[in-house]
Design a protein that fits this description.
CATH superfamily of the largest domain: Type I PLP-dependent aspartate aminotransferase-like (Major domain)
Number of strands: 18
Radius of gyration: 23 Å
Number of helices: 14
CATH class of the largest domain: Alpha Beta
Oligomer: single chain
Shape: globular
Structural class: alpha/beta
CATH topology of the largest domain: Aspartate Aminotransferase, domain 2
Length: about 475
């Protein structure tokens, strides 16, 4: 069977039989601990291209979450796929104790781009996945703070499910069966304006959240600060500038500037988790740029390789990561900075620079958000919409008050979207949606940054159909 034949839709009955057989094998032999079964039965996909993903029967699904923002530049991006193929034929493998050109060039590119934005010299350290990079950052922070293992993090925050990362992720369910292994977090409120106190503007609520945090340092009896020695018990504050799993909650523009002043006054590092929002998801290389503060550490991953290879890393200020304080062997992973990943990532960095996402993404995002606001006016189940660049949110609520969270409706939307029977101009489509939010009632949208305006219009038309269907 050649490549063209493999991409042709199978007969519906053959595809159905194969899917049924695969799901039986999955049920018997696959751990369910490494995935999430949002639908029953789980959906099996066959191929992908651009903003679409296809099942075995050839049905097309417009993907509005792009592998949790890992595929920012579209499925099967030819330029990035070609970079991977070229590297396979030249240097596909090399042990990480040796060097290769792409690793050095990629680290330099990320460090230089970051220095140009924040005016801070720093270095880049690689690993293979987002949670692993978070673990590396915890080592870096502990090392810089003489072994302090307590961190601040946000309610609604998500940083991964390894032991260290789950300790600073606000959901107890991720660590309930495993307990803690060293690092612990004090979770403080994030300025979630839609569900915040009524009568406050977004900026006023952001200021109130910072004021509430700052009072922890007013007295030693609040448990975090020793005024006699001038030291905090906490080493760092881990933040997502825009909450990911928490439902793409976008804070007010004054919030992080005010928070950073409190941290600087008390010697606490700011660690910014850009794993979902980095690499132009919001229209900037790092989403923290929107808020006018300088991070001490940045954790990144996902879209760096457009999902073609697991590669992640951290950028940190020179004084935290130079070889004198963070020497060789401080962390290690066999596949970190592997040449396939670094080659694709280097090409992705060039693509980002040449395609001017800094201009295109805010424009597309504003257009998409305008369409979502129109849907909100027409559907009582839409309680809130918001967005920054191409990171957008739709909060689904009960229609009687447009505020009470409705997980039932969102679950129904995901199931209906995966049926693949929404229709526009005689063509049937499915929708791939992701669920987030404190009450699991938010549709989080992370479409391809290469998405056309026509595809944005199609997404809005299909969402309108979906909203009408689930309310019927």
């Amino acid at each position: 069977m050649n490549a063209i034949e493999r991409n042709l839709p199978k007969r519906a009955d053959d595809a159905h039989t194969e899917t049924h057989a695969l799901l039986e094998l999955e049920s018997r032999y696959c751990s369910h601990g490494d995935t999430v079964h949002y639908t029953d039965p789980p959906k099996i996909f066959e191929r992908c291209e651009g903003a679409y993903i296809y099942d075995a029967e050839g049905r097309q699904f417009l993907d509005l979450q792009m592998w949790y923002s890992a595929v920012n530049f579209g499925y099967c991006n030819k330029r990035l796929n070609d970079a991977l193929k070229q590297q396979i034929d030249r240097l596909p493998q090399v042990a990480s104790q040796y060097l290769h050109r792409e690793k050095i060039q990629l680290a330099a590119k990320i460090a230089q781009e970051t220095e140009s934005r924040f005016g801070q010299k720093g270095r880049v350290h690689f690993n293979v996945g987002g949670a692993q990079a978070v673990e590396d950052s915890l080592k870096l922070v502990r090392n810089a703070s003489n072994g302090k293992s307590l961190m601040f993090a946000f309610e609604g925050g998500y940083h991964g499910r390894t032991l260290g990362a789950s300790a600073i992720t606000s959901s107890y369910r991720y660590r309930r069966r495993y307990g803690h292994f060293g690092d612990r977090a004090n979770f403080v409120p994030f300025p979630y304006h839609f569900r915040g106190p009524k009568g406050m503007t977004k900026e006023e609520y952001g200021h109130e959240c910072v004021r509430h945090f700052a009072r922890l340092f007013e007295s030693e009896y609040n448990g975090v600060w020793d005024p006699k020695s001038g030291t905090a018990e906490y080493a760092a504050f881990y933040v997502e500038p825009i909450q990911g799993t928490g439902g793409y909650v976008i804070p007010p523009m004054n919030f992080f500037r005010e928070l950073k002043k409190v941290l600087d006054d008390h010697g606490i590092l700011l660690v910014v988790d850009e794993i979902q929002m980095g690499f132009y998801r919001t229209g900037k290389l790092w989403s923290i740029e929107h808020f006018g503060v300088e991070p001490d550490v940045i954790v990144f991953g996902k879209a760096l390789t457009n999902g073609l290879n697991p590669l992640s890393g951290i950028w940190a200020k020179e004084e935290l990561i130079n070889p004198g304080v963070f020497p060789p062997g401080s962390t290690h992973s066999t596949f970190n900075s592997n040449p396939l990943g670094t080659a694709v990532a280097l090409e992705a960095m060039k693509l980002m620079e040449e395609n001017n996402y800094a201009k295109a993404v805010p424009e597309k995002g504003a257009y998409f958000l305008e369409g979502l606001e129109d849907l909100k006016r027409r559907h009582k189940i839409v309680g809130d919409v918001d967005g920054l660049g191409m990171a957008l949110r739709i909060e689904i609520c009960e229609p009687h008050d447009s505020f009470t969270p409705s997980k039932v409706l969102v679950d129904r939307m995901v199931d209906e979207g995966l049926k693949g029977d929404l229709e526009y101009k005689g063509t049937k489509y499915g929708l791939v949606l992701d669920i987030g939010g404190y009450h699991k009632n938010v549709i989080t949208l992370a479409p391809s940054l290469e998405m056309s305006y026509g595809e944005i219009d199609l997404a809005l038309i299909l969402l309108d159909q979906l909203f009408r269907r689930v309310q019927a």
